[in-house]
Write a structure and sequence with these properties.
The protein is an alpha+beta fold. Helices cover 58% and strands 18% of the residues.
Length: 641
Protein backbone atom coordinates (compact mmCIF):
# COMPACT_ATOMS: atom_id res chain seq x y z
CA UNK A 1 0.00 0.00 0.00
CA UNK A 2 2.83 2.37 0.89
CA UNK A 3 4.59 1.49 -2.37
CA UNK A 4 1.39 2.21 -4.28
CA UNK A 5 1.13 5.63 -2.63
CA UNK A 6 4.71 6.46 -3.63
CA UNK A 7 4.05 5.21 -7.14
CA UNK A 8 0.90 7.31 -7.41
CA UNK A 9 2.79 10.36 -6.14
CA UNK A 10 5.51 9.83 -8.74
CA UNK A 11 2.88 9.54 -11.52
CA UNK A 12 1.23 12.80 -10.40
CA UNK A 13 4.56 14.59 -10.20
CA UNK A 14 5.53 13.40 -13.69
CA UNK A 15 2.16 14.53 -15.06
CA UNK A 16 2.51 17.93 -13.41
CA UNK A 17 6.04 18.28 -14.73
CA UNK A 18 4.86 17.59 -18.28
CA UNK A 19 1.95 20.01 -18.01
CA UNK A 20 4.12 22.62 -16.32
CA UNK A 21 6.81 22.38 -18.99
CA UNK A 22 4.22 22.86 -21.75
CA UNK A 23 2.46 25.71 -19.94
CA UNK A 24 5.68 27.44 -19.02
CA UNK A 25 6.93 27.10 -22.61
CA UNK A 26 3.75 28.79 -23.87
CA UNK A 27 4.03 31.54 -21.24
CA UNK A 28 7.70 32.05 -22.03
CA UNK A 29 6.93 32.33 -25.75
CA UNK A 30 4.12 34.83 -25.08
CA UNK A 31 6.30 36.85 -22.73
CA UNK A 32 9.10 36.90 -25.30
CA UNK A 33 6.66 38.05 -28.00
CA UNK A 34 5.20 40.60 -25.60
CA UNK A 35 8.68 41.88 -24.74
CA UNK A 36 9.59 42.06 -28.40
CA UNK A 37 6.38 43.93 -29.13
CA UNK A 38 7.03 46.28 -26.22
CA UNK A 39 10.58 46.86 -27.39
CA UNK A 40 9.28 47.47 -30.89
CA UNK A 41 6.71 49.86 -29.49
CA UNK A 42 9.35 51.80 -27.57
CA UNK A 43 11.74 51.84 -30.49
CA UNK A 44 8.94 52.98 -32.80
CA UNK A 45 8.10 55.75 -30.39
CA UNK A 46 11.74 56.82 -30.25
CA UNK A 47 12.18 56.61 -34.01
CA UNK A 48 8.89 58.44 -34.61
CA UNK A 49 9.90 61.13 -32.17
CA UNK A 50 13.26 61.57 -33.84
CA UNK A 51 11.67 61.65 -37.28
CA UNK A 52 9.00 64.15 -36.24
CA UNK A 53 11.60 66.30 -34.51
CA UNK A 54 13.81 66.20 -37.56
CA UNK A 55 10.99 67.05 -39.96
CA UNK A 56 9.78 69.81 -37.65
CA UNK A 57 13.34 71.07 -37.31
CA UNK A 58 13.48 71.27 -41.09
CA UNK A 59 10.58 73.73 -41.04
CA UNK A 60 12.04 75.72 -38.13
CA UNK A 61 15.40 76.05 -39.88
CA UNK A 62 13.71 77.22 -43.06
CA UNK A 63 11.70 79.80 -41.10
CA UNK A 64 14.80 80.92 -39.26
CA UNK A 65 16.74 81.29 -42.51
CA UNK A 66 13.91 83.39 -43.96
CA UNK A 67 13.84 85.63 -40.88
CA UNK A 68 17.61 86.10 -40.79
CA UNK A 69 17.59 86.77 -44.55
CA UNK A 70 15.05 89.56 -44.09
CA UNK A 71 17.07 91.02 -41.26
CA UNK A 72 20.20 90.71 -43.29
CA UNK A 73 18.49 92.61 -46.11
CA UNK A 74 17.69 95.39 -43.66
CA UNK A 75 21.40 95.62 -42.71
CA UNK A 76 20.89 94.64 -39.11
CA UNK A 77 24.11 93.27 -37.73
CA UNK A 78 25.08 92.23 -41.15
CA UNK A 79 28.27 90.38 -40.30
CA UNK A 80 26.72 88.38 -37.51
CA UNK A 81 23.64 87.56 -39.60
CA UNK A 82 25.86 86.40 -42.45
CA UNK A 83 27.58 83.94 -40.14
CA UNK A 84 24.30 82.85 -38.65
CA UNK A 85 22.84 82.22 -42.13
CA UNK A 86 25.81 80.08 -43.01
CA UNK A 87 25.41 78.07 -39.79
CA UNK A 88 21.70 77.67 -40.43
CA UNK A 89 22.34 76.49 -43.98
CA UNK A 90 24.86 73.95 -42.66
CA UNK A 91 22.36 72.63 -40.11
CA UNK A 92 19.66 72.48 -42.80
CA UNK A 93 21.97 70.33 -44.96
CA UNK A 94 22.82 68.01 -42.05
CA UNK A 95 19.19 67.67 -41.03
CA UNK A 96 18.25 66.92 -44.62
CA UNK A 97 21.00 64.27 -44.85
CA UNK A 98 19.74 62.74 -41.59
CA UNK A 99 16.20 62.56 -42.99
CA UNK A 100 17.52 60.88 -46.13
CA UNK A 101 19.44 58.37 -44.00
CA UNK A 102 16.27 57.32 -42.15
CA UNK A 103 15.02 55.53 -45.27
CA UNK A 104 11.53 56.38 -44.20
CA UNK A 105 9.19 55.63 -47.14
CA UNK A 106 6.98 58.58 -46.26
CA UNK A 107 9.95 60.96 -46.25
CA UNK A 108 11.26 59.42 -49.46
CA UNK A 109 7.91 59.82 -51.17
CA UNK A 110 7.58 63.45 -50.08
CA UNK A 111 11.10 64.42 -50.93
CA UNK A 112 11.15 62.75 -54.31
CA UNK A 113 7.51 62.93 -55.22
CA UNK A 114 6.90 64.95 -58.42
CA UNK A 115 4.32 67.13 -56.72
CA UNK A 116 6.80 68.20 -54.08
CA UNK A 117 10.23 68.09 -55.72
CA UNK A 118 11.59 68.78 -52.26
CA UNK A 119 15.22 67.98 -52.99
CA UNK A 120 15.40 70.28 -56.01
CA UNK A 121 13.54 72.99 -54.22
CA UNK A 122 15.81 72.75 -51.20
CA UNK A 123 18.92 72.79 -53.36
CA UNK A 124 17.71 75.94 -55.19
CA UNK A 125 16.82 77.43 -51.83
CA UNK A 126 20.31 76.92 -50.49
CA UNK A 127 21.88 78.33 -53.67
CA UNK A 128 19.66 81.41 -53.55
CA UNK A 129 20.54 82.03 -49.90
CA UNK A 130 24.23 81.81 -50.73
CA UNK A 131 23.74 84.24 -53.63
CA UNK A 132 21.75 86.45 -51.34
CA UNK A 133 24.67 86.59 -48.92
CA UNK A 134 26.88 87.87 -51.67
CA UNK A 135 24.31 90.14 -53.28
CA UNK A 136 21.31 90.82 -51.01
CA UNK A 137 18.74 91.97 -53.59
CA UNK A 138 15.03 92.30 -53.10
CA UNK A 139 14.45 89.80 -55.87
CA UNK A 140 16.50 87.11 -54.20
CA UNK A 141 14.82 87.84 -50.89
CA UNK A 142 11.46 87.45 -52.50
CA UNK A 143 12.53 84.14 -54.04
CA UNK A 144 13.83 83.01 -50.66
CA UNK A 145 10.59 83.91 -48.93
CA UNK A 146 8.54 82.26 -51.62
CA UNK A 147 10.65 79.08 -51.52
CA UNK A 148 10.54 79.22 -47.75
CA UNK A 149 6.77 78.89 -47.79
CA UNK A 150 6.97 75.83 -50.08
CA UNK A 151 9.60 74.20 -47.92
CA UNK A 152 7.63 74.96 -44.78
CA UNK A 153 4.50 73.44 -46.27
CA UNK A 154 6.48 70.33 -47.22
CA UNK A 155 8.02 70.11 -43.75
CA UNK A 156 4.62 70.46 -42.10
CA UNK A 157 3.26 67.80 -44.43
CA UNK A 158 6.11 65.46 -43.45
CA UNK A 159 5.42 66.03 -39.76
CA UNK A 160 1.75 65.29 -40.25
CA UNK A 161 2.36 62.15 -42.32
CA UNK A 162 5.08 60.79 -40.01
CA UNK A 163 2.92 61.48 -36.97
CA UNK A 164 -0.03 59.67 -38.56
CA UNK A 165 2.16 56.67 -39.45
CA UNK A 166 3.57 56.62 -35.95
CA UNK A 167 0.06 56.74 -34.48
CA UNK A 168 -0.97 53.76 -36.62
CA UNK A 169 2.03 51.70 -35.57
CA UNK A 170 1.54 52.70 -31.97
CA UNK A 171 -2.11 51.70 -32.14
CA UNK A 172 -1.28 48.30 -33.68
CA UNK A 173 1.45 47.56 -31.17
CA UNK A 174 -0.77 48.72 -28.33
CA UNK A 175 -3.54 46.35 -29.43
CA UNK A 176 -0.99 43.56 -29.79
CA UNK A 177 0.39 44.24 -26.31
CA UNK A 178 -3.11 44.30 -24.90
CA UNK A 179 -3.98 41.03 -26.67
CA UNK A 180 -0.76 39.25 -25.64
CA UNK A 181 -1.15 40.45 -22.06
CA UNK A 182 -4.72 39.15 -21.96
CA UNK A 183 -3.54 35.88 -23.53
CA UNK A 184 -0.87 35.54 -20.85
CA UNK A 185 -3.51 36.16 -18.20
CA UNK A 186 -5.78 33.53 -19.79
CA UNK A 187 -2.93 31.02 -19.92
CA UNK A 188 -2.06 31.81 -16.31
CA UNK A 189 -5.71 31.27 -15.38
CA UNK A 190 -5.73 27.94 -17.23
CA UNK A 191 -2.50 26.95 -15.50
CA UNK A 192 -4.00 27.91 -12.17
CA UNK A 193 -7.12 25.86 -12.75
CA UNK A 194 -5.61 22.92 -14.62
CA UNK A 195 -2.27 22.64 -12.88
CA UNK A 196 -2.14 24.61 -9.68
CA UNK A 197 -5.57 23.61 -8.39
CA UNK A 198 -5.07 20.08 -9.74
CA UNK A 199 -1.69 19.82 -8.06
CA UNK A 200 -3.10 21.20 -4.82
CA UNK A 201 -5.94 18.64 -4.88
CA UNK A 202 -3.65 15.78 -5.78
CA UNK A 203 -1.07 16.90 -3.27
CA UNK A 204 -3.72 17.02 -0.56
CA UNK A 205 -4.95 13.58 -1.65
CA UNK A 206 -1.42 12.20 -1.59
CA UNK A 207 -0.73 13.84 1.76
CA UNK A 208 -3.88 12.22 3.14
CA UNK A 209 -2.80 8.85 1.82
CA UNK A 210 0.64 9.40 3.28
CA UNK A 211 -0.97 10.22 6.62
CA UNK A 212 -2.92 6.99 6.37
CA UNK A 213 0.24 5.18 5.45
CA UNK A 214 2.04 6.78 8.35
CA UNK A 215 -0.73 5.67 10.69
CA UNK A 216 -0.65 2.20 9.12
CA UNK A 217 3.12 1.93 9.44
CA UNK A 218 2.98 3.30 12.97
CA UNK A 219 0.40 0.67 13.85
CA UNK A 220 2.68 -2.01 12.41
CA UNK A 221 5.71 -0.66 14.21
CA UNK A 222 3.92 -0.26 17.53
CA UNK A 223 2.16 -3.63 17.37
CA UNK A 224 4.96 -5.63 15.82
CA UNK A 225 5.95 -8.82 17.62
CA UNK A 226 9.58 -7.90 16.92
CA UNK A 227 11.78 -5.13 18.26
CA UNK A 228 12.37 -2.61 15.46
CA UNK A 229 15.27 -0.18 15.83
CA UNK A 230 16.69 2.23 13.25
CA UNK A 231 19.88 4.27 13.35
CA UNK A 232 21.61 6.87 11.26
CA UNK A 233 24.90 6.05 9.52
CA UNK A 234 26.81 6.91 12.70
CA UNK A 235 24.80 4.45 14.76
CA UNK A 236 22.66 6.95 16.68
CA UNK A 237 19.24 5.42 17.33
CA UNK A 238 16.47 7.18 15.40
CA UNK A 239 13.54 4.83 16.09
CA UNK A 240 12.77 2.50 19.01
CA UNK A 241 9.35 0.81 18.83
CA UNK A 242 7.16 -0.39 21.71
CA UNK A 243 8.25 -4.01 21.41
CA UNK A 244 11.84 -2.84 21.80
CA UNK A 245 10.81 -0.89 24.90
CA UNK A 246 9.13 -3.96 26.37
CA UNK A 247 11.99 -6.27 25.38
CA UNK A 248 14.81 -4.09 26.72
CA UNK A 249 13.17 -2.03 29.48
CA UNK A 250 14.28 1.32 28.01
CA UNK A 251 11.87 4.01 26.84
CA UNK A 252 12.30 5.54 23.39
CA UNK A 253 12.95 8.94 25.00
CA UNK A 254 15.99 7.49 26.78
CA UNK A 255 17.66 6.30 23.58
CA UNK A 256 16.40 8.07 20.43
CA UNK A 257 18.98 10.60 19.19
CA UNK A 258 21.02 9.93 22.34
CA UNK A 259 22.48 6.42 22.27
CA UNK A 260 23.78 3.71 19.94
CA UNK A 261 22.75 0.03 20.14
CA UNK A 262 25.93 -0.62 22.13
CA UNK A 263 23.96 0.41 25.24
CA UNK A 264 22.05 -2.90 25.23
CA UNK A 265 24.70 -5.21 23.71
CA UNK A 266 27.20 -7.32 25.65
CA UNK A 267 30.61 -5.68 25.34
CA UNK A 268 32.51 -8.97 25.36
CA UNK A 269 30.27 -10.35 22.61
CA UNK A 270 30.89 -7.27 20.43
CA UNK A 271 34.64 -7.66 20.96
CA UNK A 272 34.46 -11.34 20.05
CA UNK A 273 32.41 -10.63 16.90
CA UNK A 274 34.91 -7.93 15.88
CA UNK A 275 37.71 -10.52 16.00
CA UNK A 276 35.62 -13.04 14.04
CA UNK A 277 34.74 -10.49 11.34
CA UNK A 278 38.34 -9.32 11.11
CA UNK A 279 39.44 -12.91 10.43
CA UNK A 280 36.55 -13.57 8.05
CA UNK A 281 37.12 -10.47 5.90
CA UNK A 282 40.87 -10.11 6.50
CA UNK A 283 40.32 -6.57 7.73
CA UNK A 284 40.90 -4.62 10.93
CA UNK A 285 37.40 -4.25 12.35
CA UNK A 286 37.35 -2.55 15.72
CA UNK A 287 34.65 -3.17 18.35
CA UNK A 288 31.85 -0.67 17.88
CA UNK A 289 28.88 0.07 15.66
CA UNK A 290 30.78 -1.14 12.58
CA UNK A 291 30.62 -4.69 13.94
CA UNK A 292 26.81 -4.66 13.62
CA UNK A 293 26.69 -3.35 10.03
CA UNK A 294 29.88 -4.72 8.45
CA UNK A 295 28.07 -7.54 6.63
CA UNK A 296 25.28 -5.20 5.55
CA UNK A 297 27.76 -2.72 4.10
CA UNK A 298 29.31 -5.57 2.14
CA UNK A 299 25.84 -6.41 0.72
CA UNK A 300 25.84 -9.75 2.55
CA UNK A 301 22.95 -11.29 4.46
CA UNK A 302 23.20 -10.00 8.01
CA UNK A 303 21.08 -12.25 10.19
CA UNK A 304 22.80 -13.51 13.33
CA UNK A 305 22.08 -14.37 16.92
CA UNK A 306 23.00 -11.71 19.46
CA UNK A 307 22.65 -11.27 23.20
CA UNK A 308 20.68 -8.21 24.32
CA UNK A 309 21.08 -6.94 27.86
CA UNK A 310 17.87 -5.74 29.53
CA UNK A 311 17.97 -2.53 31.52
CA UNK A 312 17.73 -4.66 34.66
CA UNK A 313 20.80 -6.68 33.60
CA UNK A 314 19.05 -9.85 32.45
CA UNK A 315 20.06 -11.32 29.09
CA UNK A 316 17.88 -11.95 26.04
CA UNK A 317 18.86 -14.04 23.03
CA UNK A 318 17.64 -12.50 19.74
CA UNK A 319 17.80 -13.25 16.05
CA UNK A 320 18.85 -9.86 14.62
CA UNK A 321 18.44 -8.92 10.96
CA UNK A 322 20.11 -5.67 9.79
CA UNK A 323 19.47 -3.97 6.43
CA UNK A 324 20.29 -0.61 4.85
CA UNK A 325 17.97 2.39 4.68
CA UNK A 326 18.53 4.13 1.35
CA UNK A 327 17.09 7.27 -0.24
CA UNK A 328 15.86 7.79 -3.80
CA UNK A 329 19.44 8.41 -4.93
CA UNK A 330 20.48 4.99 -3.57
CA UNK A 331 22.53 6.62 -0.84
CA UNK A 332 22.62 4.90 2.55
CA UNK A 333 20.92 7.06 5.17
CA UNK A 334 20.88 4.60 8.05
CA UNK A 335 20.18 1.05 9.13
CA UNK A 336 17.13 -0.97 10.13
CA UNK A 337 17.41 -3.69 12.76
CA UNK A 338 14.61 -6.20 13.40
CA UNK A 339 15.14 -8.38 16.47
CA UNK A 340 13.15 -11.51 17.30
CA UNK A 341 13.26 -12.70 20.90
CA UNK A 342 14.34 -16.36 20.69
CA UNK A 343 15.22 -16.83 24.36
CA UNK A 344 12.34 -19.25 24.90
CA UNK A 345 13.03 -20.89 21.55
CA UNK A 346 16.70 -21.43 22.44
CA UNK A 347 15.65 -22.80 25.83
CA UNK A 348 13.17 -25.12 24.14
CA UNK A 349 15.79 -26.20 21.61
CA UNK A 350 18.12 -26.99 24.48
CA UNK A 351 15.40 -28.97 26.21
CA UNK A 352 14.53 -30.74 22.95
CA UNK A 353 18.18 -31.69 22.51
CA UNK A 354 18.19 -33.11 26.02
CA UNK A 355 14.95 -34.95 25.36
CA UNK A 356 16.27 -36.23 22.04
CA UNK A 357 19.39 -37.43 23.80
CA UNK A 358 17.24 -39.20 26.37
CA UNK A 359 15.08 -40.65 23.60
CA UNK A 360 18.15 -41.73 21.65
CA UNK A 361 19.54 -43.40 24.75
CA UNK A 362 16.36 -45.01 26.03
CA UNK A 363 13.84 -45.38 23.18
CA UNK A 364 14.32 -48.15 20.63
CA UNK A 365 13.63 -46.28 17.41
CA UNK A 366 14.73 -46.31 13.79
CA UNK A 367 13.79 -44.83 10.44
CA UNK A 368 13.95 -46.28 6.94
CA UNK A 369 13.49 -45.08 3.41
CA UNK A 370 10.49 -46.22 1.38
CA UNK A 371 12.37 -49.40 0.40
CA UNK A 372 13.00 -50.37 4.01
CA UNK A 373 16.68 -49.45 4.15
CA UNK A 374 17.64 -48.16 7.61
CA UNK A 375 18.54 -44.45 7.58
CA UNK A 376 18.60 -43.77 11.34
CA UNK A 377 18.89 -45.78 14.53
CA UNK A 378 18.84 -44.72 18.17
CA UNK A 379 21.52 -45.65 20.65
CA UNK A 380 18.94 -47.79 22.46
CA UNK A 381 18.29 -49.78 19.28
CA UNK A 382 22.02 -50.41 18.89
CA UNK A 383 22.30 -51.43 22.52
CA UNK A 384 19.46 -53.96 22.49
CA UNK A 385 20.33 -55.44 19.08
CA UNK A 386 24.09 -55.59 19.68
CA UNK A 387 24.87 -53.85 16.37
CA UNK A 388 26.62 -50.51 15.90
CA UNK A 389 25.01 -47.68 13.94
CA UNK A 390 27.45 -48.23 11.08
CA UNK A 391 26.41 -51.88 10.94
CA UNK A 392 22.71 -50.98 10.83
CA UNK A 393 22.59 -47.90 8.56
CA UNK A 394 21.88 -48.96 5.00
CA UNK A 395 20.73 -52.44 6.01
CA UNK A 396 17.23 -53.88 5.90
CA UNK A 397 15.44 -54.71 9.14
CA UNK A 398 15.79 -58.36 8.13
CA UNK A 399 19.14 -58.14 9.88
CA UNK A 400 17.27 -58.52 13.19
CA UNK A 401 14.47 -60.78 11.97
CA UNK A 402 14.02 -63.86 14.13
CA UNK A 403 13.22 -67.15 12.39
CA UNK A 404 10.39 -67.80 14.87
CA UNK A 405 8.44 -64.93 13.30
CA UNK A 406 6.32 -66.15 10.42
CA UNK A 407 6.10 -64.29 7.15
CA UNK A 408 2.40 -63.62 7.75
CA UNK A 409 3.14 -60.94 10.34
CA UNK A 410 5.47 -59.08 7.94
CA UNK A 411 2.98 -59.35 5.11
CA UNK A 412 0.38 -57.77 7.37
CA UNK A 413 2.89 -55.08 8.41
CA UNK A 414 3.71 -54.07 4.83
CA UNK A 415 0.07 -54.22 3.79
CA UNK A 416 -0.67 -51.54 6.39
CA UNK A 417 2.32 -49.37 5.51
CA UNK A 418 1.74 -49.47 1.76
CA UNK A 419 -1.79 -48.18 2.44
CA UNK A 420 -0.23 -45.36 4.53
CA UNK A 421 -1.63 -46.86 7.73
CA UNK A 422 0.02 -47.30 11.10
CA UNK A 423 0.97 -50.82 12.17
CA UNK A 424 1.16 -51.90 15.79
CA UNK A 425 2.25 -55.34 16.91
CA UNK A 426 4.67 -57.52 18.85
CA UNK A 427 7.82 -58.76 17.14
CA UNK A 428 10.52 -61.14 18.26
CA UNK A 429 13.91 -59.92 17.04
CA UNK A 430 17.30 -61.58 16.77
CA UNK A 431 20.34 -60.05 18.44
CA UNK A 432 23.79 -60.02 16.87
CA UNK A 433 24.97 -62.65 19.38
CA UNK A 434 22.13 -65.00 18.43
CA UNK A 435 19.91 -64.36 21.44
CA UNK A 436 16.53 -62.69 21.08
CA UNK A 437 14.40 -59.86 22.44
CA UNK A 438 10.76 -58.92 22.13
CA UNK A 439 9.45 -55.47 21.23
CA UNK A 440 6.07 -53.88 20.86
CA UNK A 441 6.48 -51.91 17.62
CA UNK A 442 4.59 -48.87 16.36
CA UNK A 443 5.49 -48.24 12.71
CA UNK A 444 4.19 -45.21 10.76
CA UNK A 445 4.86 -43.57 7.37
CA UNK A 446 6.79 -40.28 7.36
CA UNK A 447 6.30 -37.48 4.81
CA UNK A 448 8.21 -34.45 3.55
CA UNK A 449 6.82 -30.90 3.50
CA UNK A 450 5.14 -31.53 0.14
CA UNK A 451 3.24 -34.51 1.49
CA UNK A 452 5.38 -37.11 -0.30
CA UNK A 453 6.07 -40.30 1.61
CA UNK A 454 9.83 -40.59 2.20
CA UNK A 455 10.05 -43.52 4.56
CA UNK A 456 8.92 -45.07 7.82
CA UNK A 457 9.65 -44.57 11.50
CA UNK A 458 9.41 -47.34 14.07
CA UNK A 459 9.18 -46.77 17.81
CA UNK A 460 9.63 -49.90 19.87
CA UNK A 461 9.24 -50.84 23.50
CA UNK A 462 11.29 -53.66 24.98
CA UNK A 463 8.77 -56.22 26.21
CA UNK A 464 11.15 -59.13 26.59
CA UNK A 465 10.49 -59.36 30.33
CA UNK A 466 6.79 -58.99 29.74
CA UNK A 467 6.84 -61.73 27.13
CA UNK A 468 8.85 -63.91 29.50
CA UNK A 469 6.22 -63.44 32.18
CA UNK A 470 3.50 -64.09 29.64
CA UNK A 471 5.32 -67.18 28.45
CA UNK A 472 5.63 -68.41 31.99
CA UNK A 473 1.93 -67.78 32.57
CA UNK A 474 0.90 -69.73 29.47
CA UNK A 475 3.56 -72.41 29.58
CA UNK A 476 3.32 -75.71 31.35
CA UNK A 477 6.03 -75.79 33.97
CA UNK A 478 6.95 -79.42 33.40
CA UNK A 479 6.84 -79.86 29.63
CA UNK A 480 7.64 -76.27 28.49
CA UNK A 481 4.75 -76.23 26.00
CA UNK A 482 1.57 -74.16 26.19
CA UNK A 483 -0.78 -74.96 29.09
CA UNK A 484 -4.54 -75.41 29.30
CA UNK A 485 -5.03 -71.74 30.17
CA UNK A 486 -3.45 -70.62 26.89
CA UNK A 487 -5.43 -73.25 24.98
CA UNK A 488 -8.67 -71.82 26.33
CA UNK A 489 -7.48 -68.32 25.32
CA UNK A 490 -6.39 -69.01 21.76
CA UNK A 491 -8.67 -71.83 20.61
CA UNK A 492 -11.72 -69.60 20.09
CA UNK A 493 -9.57 -67.06 18.19
CA UNK A 494 -8.25 -69.80 15.94
CA UNK A 495 -11.76 -70.91 15.13
CA UNK A 496 -12.74 -67.30 14.29
CA UNK A 497 -9.67 -66.88 12.04
CA UNK A 498 -10.63 -70.19 10.43
CA UNK A 499 -14.00 -68.76 9.47
CA UNK A 500 -12.49 -65.51 8.16
CA UNK A 501 -9.78 -67.23 6.10
CA UNK A 502 -12.01 -70.08 4.85
CA UNK A 503 -9.44 -72.70 5.91
CA UNK A 504 -9.76 -76.17 7.46
CA UNK A 505 -8.92 -76.41 11.14
CA UNK A 506 -7.97 -79.59 12.96
CA UNK A 507 -7.93 -80.35 16.66
CA UNK A 508 -6.13 -83.45 17.94
CA UNK A 509 -6.59 -84.54 21.56
CA UNK A 510 -3.98 -86.99 22.88
CA UNK A 511 -3.93 -89.20 25.98
CA UNK A 512 -0.95 -91.39 27.06
CA UNK A 513 -2.03 -95.00 27.28
CA UNK A 514 -2.06 -96.55 30.79
CA UNK A 515 -0.05 -93.67 32.21
CA UNK A 516 -1.21 -94.45 35.81
CA UNK A 517 0.27 -97.92 35.55
CA UNK A 518 3.50 -96.37 34.20
CA UNK A 519 3.78 -94.14 37.26
CA UNK A 520 3.01 -97.02 39.55
CA UNK A 521 5.63 -99.18 37.86
CA UNK A 522 8.44 -96.71 37.18
CA UNK A 523 7.69 -93.91 39.58
CA UNK A 524 6.41 -90.36 39.15
CA UNK A 525 9.84 -88.97 38.28
CA UNK A 526 10.09 -91.30 35.31
CA UNK A 527 6.46 -90.46 34.47
CA UNK A 528 7.36 -86.76 34.36
CA UNK A 529 10.26 -87.59 32.04
CA UNK A 530 7.86 -89.37 29.70
CA UNK A 531 5.57 -86.35 29.57
CA UNK A 532 8.57 -84.10 28.78
CA UNK A 533 9.68 -86.34 25.91
CA UNK A 534 6.18 -86.49 24.45
CA UNK A 535 5.95 -82.66 24.60
CA UNK A 536 9.27 -82.40 22.73
CA UNK A 537 7.98 -84.81 20.11
CA UNK A 538 4.84 -82.77 19.62
CA UNK A 539 6.90 -79.58 19.14
CA UNK A 540 9.10 -81.25 16.55
CA UNK A 541 6.08 -82.62 14.72
CA UNK A 542 4.48 -79.19 14.13
CA UNK A 543 4.62 -78.23 10.44
CA UNK A 544 3.59 -74.54 10.41
CA UNK A 545 4.61 -71.54 12.44
CA UNK A 546 1.07 -71.08 13.68
CA UNK A 547 0.49 -74.78 14.57
CA UNK A 548 0.32 -75.10 18.38
CA UNK A 549 0.62 -77.88 20.95
CA UNK A 550 -0.66 -77.84 24.55
CA UNK A 551 -0.57 -79.90 27.77
CA UNK A 552 -4.24 -79.95 28.67
CA UNK A 553 -3.76 -81.65 32.02
CA UNK A 554 -2.10 -84.75 33.51
CA UNK A 555 -1.10 -87.02 30.63
CA UNK A 556 -3.50 -85.30 28.18
CA UNK A 557 -2.19 -83.13 25.28
CA UNK A 558 -3.73 -81.18 22.42
CA UNK A 559 -2.58 -80.04 18.97
CA UNK A 560 -4.28 -77.34 16.86
CA UNK A 561 -3.15 -77.21 13.26
CA UNK A 562 -4.23 -76.17 9.76
CA UNK A 563 -4.50 -78.51 6.77
CA UNK A 564 -5.96 -78.65 3.28
CA UNK A 565 -8.31 -81.59 3.82
CA UNK A 566 -9.38 -84.42 6.16
CA UNK A 567 -7.02 -87.00 4.66
CA UNK A 568 -3.96 -84.88 5.28
CA UNK A 569 -5.15 -84.17 8.80
CA UNK A 570 -5.58 -87.89 9.52
CA UNK A 571 -2.15 -88.69 8.05
CA UNK A 572 -0.53 -85.95 10.15
CA UNK A 573 -2.20 -87.21 13.34
CA UNK A 574 -0.91 -90.72 12.69
CA UNK A 575 2.60 -89.34 12.19
CA UNK A 576 2.40 -87.81 15.64
CA UNK A 577 1.12 -91.12 17.08
CA UNK A 578 4.01 -93.01 15.46
CA UNK A 579 6.56 -90.44 16.60
CA UNK A 580 5.47 -91.01 20.22
CA UNK A 581 5.74 -94.79 19.95
CA UNK A 582 9.09 -94.42 18.15
CA UNK A 583 10.50 -92.80 21.28
CA UNK A 584 10.72 -96.47 22.41
CA UNK A 585 10.18 -95.68 26.03
CA UNK A 586 9.66 -99.06 27.75
CA UNK A 587 6.17 -99.58 29.24
CA UNK A 588 5.53 -103.06 30.45
CA UNK A 589 2.03 -102.18 31.63
CA UNK A 590 0.83 -101.02 28.20
CA UNK A 591 -1.67 -103.36 26.59
CA UNK A 592 -1.21 -101.72 23.15
CA UNK A 593 2.57 -101.92 22.86
CA UNK A 594 5.75 -102.66 24.78
CA UNK A 595 6.52 -98.91 24.50
CA UNK A 596 4.77 -95.79 25.64
CA UNK A 597 1.91 -95.01 23.21
CA UNK A 598 -1.00 -92.58 22.98
CA UNK A 599 -4.63 -92.73 21.91
CA UNK A 600 -6.01 -89.80 19.91
CA UNK A 601 -9.29 -88.23 18.84
CA UNK A 602 -9.18 -86.02 15.72
CA UNK A 603 -11.64 -83.39 14.56
CA UNK A 604 -11.10 -81.82 11.07
CA UNK A 605 -13.69 -79.21 10.14
CA UNK A 606 -14.55 -77.11 7.13
CA UNK A 607 -15.15 -73.39 7.76
CA UNK A 608 -18.94 -73.72 7.62
CA UNK A 609 -18.86 -76.63 10.09
CA UNK A 610 -17.30 -74.65 12.95
CA UNK A 611 -19.78 -73.86 15.71
CA UNK A 612 -18.12 -73.48 19.13
CA UNK A 613 -14.91 -74.51 20.82
CA UNK A 614 -16.76 -76.37 23.59
CA UNK A 615 -18.63 -78.56 21.13
CA UNK A 616 -15.46 -79.33 19.18
CA UNK A 617 -13.59 -80.23 22.35
CA UNK A 618 -16.37 -82.56 23.47
CA UNK A 619 -16.46 -84.25 20.07
CA UNK A 620 -12.68 -84.77 20.02
CA UNK A 621 -12.77 -86.11 23.61
CA UNK A 622 -15.51 -88.55 22.64
CA UNK A 623 -13.38 -89.83 19.75
CA UNK A 624 -10.41 -90.16 22.14
CA UNK A 625 -12.37 -92.46 24.41
CA UNK A 626 -13.50 -94.42 21.42
CA UNK A 627 -9.82 -94.92 20.50
CA UNK A 628 -9.13 -96.16 24.02
CA UNK A 629 -12.12 -98.48 23.98
CA UNK A 630 -11.13 -100.01 20.65
CA UNK A 631 -7.58 -101.02 21.51
CA UNK A 632 -5.57 -97.81 22.15
CA UNK A 633 -2.51 -96.49 20.24
CA UNK A 634 -4.71 -95.27 17.40
CA UNK A 635 -6.32 -92.16 15.88
CA UNK A 636 -10.07 -92.06 15.60
CA UNK A 637 -11.51 -89.51 13.16
CA UNK A 638 -15.16 -89.52 12.23
CA UNK A 639 -17.61 -87.12 10.60
CA UNK A 640 -19.73 -86.63 13.66
CA UNK A 641 -21.57 -83.55 12.49
Amino acid sequence: MFSYCLYKGEVIVNLLEQKSKLSYSIIAALIILNSMALSLFMQTQIDSGKTINSTAKQGVLVQRIALVSNNYFDNLHKQELSEELQVLLEELKKNHSYLNALNNPIIKNVMYDASYQYDNLLENYENNVLKFLKTPTAKLLKIINYTNESLLITANTLVTLVADESDKKTEFISYFLLFSTMLILVVLLIIYKKITLFSIAKTQETIEELHQQKAFMSAILENSAHAIITTDTNGIITLFNKKAEVMLGYSADELVLLQTPAVFHKTEEVIQRAKMLSEEFNADIQPGFQVFVEKTNRDLENRDEWTYVHKDGSEITVKLSITKLIDTNNITTGYLGIAEDITSKKHNESMIKKYMKLIDKNIITSSTDVKGKITYTSEAFCKISGYTKDELIGQNHNIVRHPDMGKEIYEDLWAHLLEDKEWVGEIKNLKKDGSFYWVEANISPIYDFDGNKVGYTAIRQDITDKKLIETISITDGLTDIYNRRHFDHVFSKRLEANRDNQEYISFLIIDVDHFKQYNDTYGHQMGDAVLIEIAKTLKKSLKRQDDLCFRLGGEEFGVVFYTDNEDKAFTYANEIKDNIENLKIRHDGNSASEYVTASMGLICLKPNQVESEDLIYKMADKLLYEAKDTGRNKVIMKDVL
